[in-house]
Amino acid sequence: MKESIRYLSLCGLLGYGYAPVSLENALSQDLDFVGVDAGSTDPGPYYLGSGKGFVKRLQVKRDLELILPIIKEKKIPLIIGSAGGSGAKPHVDSVMEIISEIASNKGLALKIAVIYSDLERAFVKEAANGHLTGCGGAPAFDPEMADKLCNPVAQFGTEPIIAALEQNVDVIVAGRCCDTAIFAAYPIHHGFPAGLALHAAKIAECGALCARPVGANDSLVVEMYHDHFTVEPPNPLRACTPDSVAAHSLYEQPDPNCFYEPEGKIDLSNCSFEALSDRKVKVSGSQLVPAEKVTTKLEGSRLAGYRSITIAGLRDPSAIKHLAEIEAGVRAAVAESANFVKEGEYSLRFLRYGLDAVMGKLESSDSPLPKEVGLVIEAIAPTQEKADALIGLARSKALHQGFPDRKATAGNLAFPFSPSDFSGGAVYEFALYHITDLPLNIQPEIRIIQ
Predict the structure, then answer these.
(1) How much of the chain exceeds pLDDT 70, in percent?
(2) 83, pLDDT greater than 80
(3) Domain 303-430 in CATH 3.30.70
(4) Are 417 and 279 in contact (CB under 8 A)?
(5) Looking at residues 436-443, what average pLDDT do you find?
(6) pLDDT of the residue at 253
(7) Quick one: which of 329, 325, 306, 320 has its CA closest to 396?
(8) What are the residues facing 171 on neighbouring strands?
(9) What confidence tier does 1 reach under pLDDT thresholds 50, 70, 90?
(10) Which residues are CB-contacts of 418 (< 8 A; sequence separation ≥ 6)?
(11) Mean pLDDT calculated for residue range 9-15
(12) Which of 68, 158, 317, 413 is buried most, with the most CB atoms less than 10 Å from its CB?
């Protein structure tokens, strides 16, 4: 049994970049593996539904070109999780294409484990029969929605990655998985306490975001022991402190004492964070309370329509004061003129930046009016043509809409761009964001790239 494990979190998200000096310093001592998270639902349902990545191809290629020759030379695995952004088959395949291109250009022979987590429609329908629980306030799932889902996936834990590691591969390209699984699978596979491994993984998943100055675009080195772990950024410009690491343990979590993964509850109530130097922190006391029943989170998007937007600015104090009346007038005028789309088939949204676009109704009504407001009008309709026509109507109506105390006869809005209207393409919304207790059989596929 290993006494310790040393691994590198390459950066907070594959494609975000990392400093070459971080890689050089991390390699000054032996590494057991390199991991990197490559996806998230944070950018919204579009990327899952469309099969496109939110980090661009050239960004991903840059990050992989530096590390692939090194892991091959050092004979250590590279683990990529939620490949391509959302981890569905189109995303995983896009990362595989980049790896194949790099391997060909650099003459690398790679043994790769590919882990797909895409869901069959039949499985979703079976799960909808009493085996789905809404996650994060999601409503009950309509079984008829199963056939409308685009790229539904399961967010798996450590087991499929452990199965891939058992195949002695050079690279693991995993579909949608828990961020912690990327970094916890190897230590758990080698007999290290799961509570410590998962807590360390929770911190490592975002690269140097637990350091100061913060940076998801940089690396973090983790050393695992059987009774504690340490974290240290390999970039000398950054430092970990007990408070910065403790704070990141709470990242995206509602309870400071614990967080949950498919393996169970990670209890942090007895954790301690100790400075070993001015840049390195020791963490101990994390415990796993195993789950009574294995569950898996499922994700899926559906096509909701097509978007068009226009962007404008206002400086007339009377117009700013009466934006609500202007909006109501525009809605009524569009409804009267838009005979090419049925009522209820489209939506118009007005975002008033500088006034209440971010906080909405929570913004204090007593706040003084700003000197200028940025207005974004969004139209969503069943086709792009209809969305474009709707935004054209809304823009022209808003430009000339009357309001109380209006003195000028010219337009209300200043447009920073020509053309003023932008076609936004397909719009997706989450329709499957649920937990199931049905078992899934997710297994790695082994491929050889010469």
Answers:
(1) 100
(2) yes
(3) yes
(4) no
(5) 95
(6) 85
(7) 329
(8) 78, 112
(9) confident
(10) none
(11) 97
(12) 158
271 versus 137: which is more confidently predicted? 271
**336 has pLDDT over 80:** yes
Domain range annotation of the chain: 5-117+156-292, 303-430
b/e map 234-250, b = 16+ CB within 10 Å: bbeebbbbeebbbbbbe
CA distance 137 to 160: 28
Number of residues in the chain: 450
Please identify which residue in the block is written with the tokens 């297994």.
443
Non-local CB neighbours of 122 within 8 Å, separated by 6+ positions = none
Taking every pair of C-alpha atoms in the chain, what is the biggest distance, in angstroms?
81
Q: pLDDT digit string (tens) for 100-142?
A: 999 999 999 999 999 999 999 999 999 999 999 999 889 999 9
As given in the structure block, the two tokens for residue 340 are 């090419």
Q: How many CB atoms lie within 10 A of CB 328?
A: 14
Tokens, residue 28: 């000054």
How far is 184 from 194, CA to CA, in rounded Å? Answer: 7
CA distances from 386 to 332, 382, 390, 391, 417 (A): 17, 7, 6, 9, 21
CB neighbour list of residue 345: distance below 8 Å, 6 or more residues apart: 381, 382
Q: Rounded to an integer, what distance in angstroms lies between the CA atom of residue 416 and that of residue 310?
A: 10
- Mean pLDDT lowest among 70-74, 138-142, 237-241, 417-421: 138-142
- Rounded to 5°, the CA angle 164-169-170 comes to 130
Chain position carrying tokens 């447009």? 415
Rounded Cα–Cα distance for residues 153 and 176 (Å): 7
- Residue the block writes with tokens 């690269």: 207
